[in-house]
Every structure is written in C-alpha cells, then in structure tokens.
Amino acid sequence: MNPLPPLPGPLPLPAPDPRVRDVVLDYADMDALVAQLVLPGEASMYVMSAMETSRELIRHSYYRYEFATVAVTHSLFALEHVLAERLAIPDPLQDLIERAGDTGLIPAELAAELDRSRLLRDRLTQGTATSAALGPARAIAMVRAVFDAVSLLLRAPSAAEAPTVDLSGEQPQDRLARLWEEHRRAPYPDSFRGIDVESVELILLDADVAALVQREMTVGSTTVASPPSGRASPTSTRSCP
C-alpha cells in the first residue's frame, strides 16, 4: 500500500457556512443552541449514541448547513428503537408513533411533531427534499421532540399501565369462582323482562361465554356446567323483574 503523501502544511480551519449567519454569531453560540438537548441517562448505549450524534450534527451545522437535516433523520433511529421496545411490536415508525399517541405514552402534540420528522425522512428517501431542507433552529425543535419522547418512553410504566396486584391473597381460581357466583346471583337490569318456566329462573349467559368460564373453572377442581347453546340454564338463582 502506498502511503499518503505528506501534507504541504497545516490544514486550513473550516469556514462557517454562510447560511447559518442569521442563527448564531460564532461557533461558541452553538453550545447554547444545543444545550437544551440533554441525553437521558437511563438510555441504552445504542440510543445514547444515536441521540448524541444528532446533537453534535446540529452543533457542526455551523460549518455545514445540511448537517441540521441529517441530525433530525439520525435521531429517528433512537426513537424507533425505544418505541419498538416500549410497545413490544416491530411495526414501522409511522405505526409506532401513532400507537404511542393513541395509548397516551406521549402527548398528541408531541406525536404530531415526531411524525413531521418521519415525513421529512420519507421525503429525503423519495427524493422530494434535499439535505438542506432544515436550518439549525428548526432542526433543534424537531430533535428536541425526539429527546422529549425518548425521555417519556424510558420512564417506568405509570400506575395506570402497570398490572394490578391483588393484595387480598385470594387465589385466581377462588376469585374466578367468586365472580361467577356473584354474576349468577346479580339481578337482571331493569330493561330486561324475563319469564319463568314452571318457576325455573333463566340465566342470560351467552353459550360461548359460558364455555369459556367452564374451561377456566375446570383448571382446578371446580366444575361449572355451561348451558347448552341457545338454551337456558336452570342453575341460576338470579332474580328476574
């Protein structure tokens, strides 16, 4: 392999991109611009790397304007990774953002901003936009949305999302039997007008539901007879109006 020839002298310092002169006065001002992009400490190395690279791309857009747009698209790697992990589905980014918004994991306004970043990425892929689509100021807002979303998604599930813990000590089989008995003895709604056949009370339970209950109940020692499809069961003590 032939070695590279020696440099004729020191390399010239990179020149600022004239397109950013309306954003900052000098490179030092870029520090203040990206200071709001704080990396979440609980993120994985993969996510941290993608997010930090996005932040530094914006910083260096002082020298190359197009780096700002690249920063937005690169940040989506981290977003997609965290969304897929949190939602436990390998769907496309568009579906992941929509699902996260629908389930309340992220606010609707934030989901809309994330989708704008996703649309920008798609436009770049389709050749309908160039890498100069965004300047540093707009890129900061879009990358900050990704940072905010990742921070929200990395938090522990809220009480509403966490599974309910039964502190009564009741076993699942016992609880199912109790709920079944409560269902049988509960009065019918006022809107229902039942009939008695020779003083035998009727139970309104769909045959499919009854079969499901029977299957769950027979896991243990308890067996619940399900009513034949389309027929009433005489085992209920529910009261009819």
**What amount of the residues lies in strands?**
under 5%
Distance between the termini: 96 Å
Task: Give the count of helical stretches.
Answer: 8
User: Strand pairing plus helix content: what structural class?
Assistant: mainly alpha
pLDDT averaged residue by residue = 80
What order do the SSEs take from the amino end to the carboxyl end, as H and E? Answer: HHHHHHHH
Helix content: 40-55%
The main pleated sheet reads as: none
Radius of gyration: 31 Å
Count of domain modules:
2
How many beta strands in the DSSP annotation?
0
Using the alpha-carbon principal axes, give the shape: elongated
Residue windows where pLDDT falls under 50 for at least 5 positions: 191-197, 221-241
Would you mind describing this structure in some detail?
- By secondary structure, the protein is mostly helical.
- It folds into two domains: 18-154, no CATH class; 168-241, no CATH class.
- 48% of the residues lie in helices and 0% in strands.
- It is built from eight helices and no strands.
- It has helices spanning 28-34, 45-59, 67-87, 93-102, 108-126, 136-154, 172-185, 207-217.
- Helix 2 packs antiparallel against helix 3 (67-87).
- The longest helix is centred in the N-terminal third of the chain and has 21 residues, at 67-87.
- The chain is elongated and about 90 Å long.
- The protein starts with 27 loop residues before the first helix and ends in a 24-residue tail after the last helix.
- The model is unreliable at 191-197 and 221-241 (pLDDT under 50).
